[in-house]
Specification:
The chain contains 11 helices and 12 strands. By secondary structure, it is α/β, with parallel strands linked by helices. The chain folds into 2 domains: 56 residues, no CATH class; 278 residues, Aldolase class I (TIM Barrel), CATH 3.20.20. It binds iron/sulfur cluster (SF4).
């Protein structure tokens, strides 16, 4: 964000002007709209520089294509200044899912994003720009860092984006959701941040060996230890932790998993989010039958564990994160070869 602020300062902006301009940008409004209030005079140099500042801000992400889903979601393929692409999704009920990296080093076996490895980190400005772009379409009151990338692997930039969104972006702190496979250094950093987001832990299994297969370059946490650390964070900030469980047929939908999960989650300040896997053409995993997912959810409820069974928003617009981008790459290569 520093470059954005420098541009404003070089044109004569003082902190109050920066704040107004940032708020207008993050709200998806034209910068000019920030200059009309009578209580704050904008210097002429700054007014003259506004079109250039605005183009710089809006160039962080450019919408390449839009893919509406029948559930009200709207998925974007976004081009960055270096022509790399990421995805974001406007979710039903004023949510937005954004990306924090181009690619991802974790390599979850069921995810298209993880297949190419990490290409680069997103800057904090590229993350908040996804919110500004989303808000130019419709209101956004909740931002989840669940798109491409593992936020804890780009922690400084993600925390800066969270701080900007929670301070100038008009988003309640518990409506900023940091989604992670877990990282030993993470919990302390989150607690020290001025804006403390809600936490979503990608758990997927209670079996350490299976987790090492499913999340190959994730941290080697004992699930019980990971849940305990997340639970401490949830209690400290006062919002429940979400435990994400991508439900894959024959892999983590067994009775043994369900029993262990029930036991580990009892008494925790959290909610299990069961997310039936979106079957992807190139990957060997399958979505379990709806009835099985429903039974698992009922079992957790009956044993005092809060649980949501999710119909993944955007599943009919290419499914999970990374698929739009994966599909666009051969097309881009073809365009480059034709040129
Ligand atoms: S699911 Fe998330 S953490 Fe895993 S590879 Fe995909 S983007 Fe990375």
């Amino acid at each position: 964000m520093q470059r954005v602020l420098n541009l404003m300062r070089e044109a004569g902006a003082r902190p109050a002007h920066e704040k107004r301009l940032l708020r207008a940008w993050l709200a998806g409004r034209a910068l000019r709209s920030a200059t009309t209030a009578r209580d704050l005079q904008f210097p002429r140099t700054l007014l003259e520089a506004l079109p250039a500042i605005e183009s710089h801000l809006n160039a962080h992400v450019r919408i390449e294509s839009e893919h509406p889903g029948s559930d009200g979601s709207l998925r974007f393929l976004l081009a960055l200044h270096d022509q790399k692409t990421v995805e974001s999704v406007l979710l039903p009920r004023d949510g937005l899912c954004i990306s924090s990296q181009v690619g991802c080093a974790v390599g979850c076996v069921f995810c298209m994003t993880g297949r190419a490895g990490l290409l680069r980190q997103l800057t904090s400005a590229e993350m908040v720009a996804q919110v500004a772009a989303g808000r130019r379409h419709r209101p956004v009151r909740r931002v989840v860092f669940m798109g491409m990338g593992e936020p804890s692997h780009n922690l400084t930039n993600v925390l800066e984006a969270i701080t900007v969104l929670g301070t100038h972006g008009d988003i309640g702190h518990k409506n900023l959701v940091f989604s992670t496979v877990g990282d030993p250094r993470l919990f302390e950093r989150l607690l020290a941040n001025p804006v403390k987001p809600a936490l979503a832990i990608s758990l997927h299994t209670t079996d350490v060996a299976l987790r090492a297969q499913l999340v190959p370059r994730g941290p080697r946490f004992e699930p019980a230890e990971l849940i305990a650390l997340a639970d401490d964070y949830g209690n400290a900030v006062g919002y429940p932790v979400m435990y994400q469980w991508t439900l894959i047929e024959g892999v983590n939908d067994t009775d043994a998993e369900l029993e262990r999960l029930t036991e580990l989650m009892q008494g925790r300040y959290g909610i299990v989010n069961l997310i039936p896997y979106n079957t992807v053409e190139d990957l060997p995993y399958k979505r379990p039958p709806t009835e099985r997912a429903r039974k698992m959810s009922q079992h957790l409820h009956q044993h005092g564990v809060l649980c949501k069974l999710r119909r993944s928003a955007g599943q009919d617009v290419e499914g999970a994160c990374g698929q739009l981008r994966a599909r666009s790459l051969p097309e881009r290569a073809a365009i480059a070869t034709d040129a």
